[in-house]
Amino acid sequence: MKLYQKVLLGSAGTASAGLVAWKSMFPWIEHDLKIINVGRKLMKIREESMSSLLIDKFEKHVATQPRKVFIEFEDNLYTFEFIDQMACKVANIARARGLGPRDCVAIMIQNEPAFVWTFLGLQKLGVSTAFINFNLKMQPLIHSVKAADPKMLIVGSGESLLESVTEILDDLAGIKVFAQGLGSMPAPPGVESFDPLFLAALPTPVSPIVRSSITMEDICCYIYTSGTTGNPKPVFINHAKAQGIGTALRLVNLNGSDKLYTVLPLYHSAGGGIGFFGAVIPGATMVLKKKFSASQFWSDVRKHEVTVIQYIGELFRYLIAQPPNKLDAVHKVRAAFGNGLRKDIWLEVNKRFQIPEIAEFFGATEGTTLLLNLANKPGAIGRLSPFLSMLDPDPKALVKFDYGTALPIRDKNGRCIKVGIGEPGLFISKVPDILVQNGRFDVYRSSKEANDKKLVRGAFKDGDIYFNYGDVFVLDKEYFLYFQDRIGDTFRWKGENVSTTEVANVVTGASFLEDANVYGVSVPGHDGRAGMAALTLKNGCSLGRQELKELYDHVCGQLPTYARPLFLRHLGEAIITGTFKQKKGDLVGEGYDHNKVSDPLFFLDAQKETYSPLSPSDLGKFLQSRL
Fold first, then answer.
1. Where does the chain cross the membrane (predicted)?
2. pLDDT level of residue 618 (50, 70, 90 thresholds)
3. Top-level class of domain 80-238
């Protein structure tokens, strides 16, 4: 046994030593103890939650607090009782069409109460649900729907959604399509209006006996990965995992008296899993917003007396970009729960909005573990200390990796190699034995190849299976973890690996920038990729000579030569996905090609010591020069 294990175990068994002795030997121990205590509490809550399905918990709230408001949406209040009645209508419609336990229905509905009661209605029958991203079109949409093998597709209200689906009807042969929100308007050919059925359906309760064969191992829903590489892939979310995701907000003590503000899309694991499921379990009120609005965010929070908010890192960046308001810190929010809050804005968020608790976490829809930063440590995503590792039945590790393959590097014995303090490492975590069936752990429904790529077998001993998150972290001396990069979000230039996240953090330090999307672009005659940054300006700012000079001096002063963006693109507005993640695919494909890019382009002009406008004639000269 290692020395620190002996000391810790000895200290743990000596009451007189106490926390003071622990802290004197291991200053970081208090952070571990907090995570352990919270973890035990969460495990207890999860164990208790496994006694019944999510829909059973919802129906219990309907019985005990029918008149309590479950959803506040666009100045309308929806009680548990009303939502249940609407869900019963959906269930009776689905049942009349022969749907039952273990069938699948795909739903493509925006953030609105109909999403909630449609999902709950299908759950009453034991029908699993595929959450389709309503922003998808054409091939990605076709793939997403068919990948879940649904018997029915229910499209929510909104002309754009219906148009997207009617464009692909020929490719959805065998899948019955229903459209909500048409009212008295006729449905297009190949689509049936859901509204007449809904009006005619009775809110007759559905007996739980109908779903009595459903177990925690059965599929509750499919939540898709973002599709940043290839098409979106449906992740198996069984009933046990759905409730595990739904208990995450208990880490900030979400309870029935809270009001949770949900602006993240419900088709995603953050909005739908952590938010919606998280509100169902304790019977909290969910303040639902159709679409994130930076200008309306805090006024909504004050108006609805919100107590807990969810965030994605970029969300706070957009909030900070709003003009300061004397009411910024006037609210009842006691906790913010989310991920991706960059270190460069964490302190500003604390100062300006004065949220008592910011709980940063790291996880993945298809992942098997959760990391937590409960110490309000700016930029940290969690902890990975010797003490926590010793107690963890399903250990995690940072290992050496190959940037090209995004896979761990093995030693002469074929085992993964752990990295040291301050060294970038690929994050992997052991798949719990209970999730492994006959040597397999199924992540995605539709892609065995993609499934196998996420697994690392024989990582540290024969037979073990680890999950590869594809994320690179760095561990500091206090054992706090920091996100450095996503494999694929790096580029290699001049023999060096460049982190787009690190470069973006530096670039956005310029006073006039709201955000910077950094990526690598190919350069003829050169190996690897050169850095390029797509810029979004703060309100009222311009990108003139003075700003370009300031940015040039800024990056040259803080970045090594190989990491400095050689190209700039001035975006008219930020390019974001439905979950506020920066979308790089289109930007990378367009690069600095004047035939594809209408935005102003600039290049790093070492002769003039500034960023200069990039014209087609300048481009040729620049590419021929020594970059």
1. none
2. confident
3. alpha beta
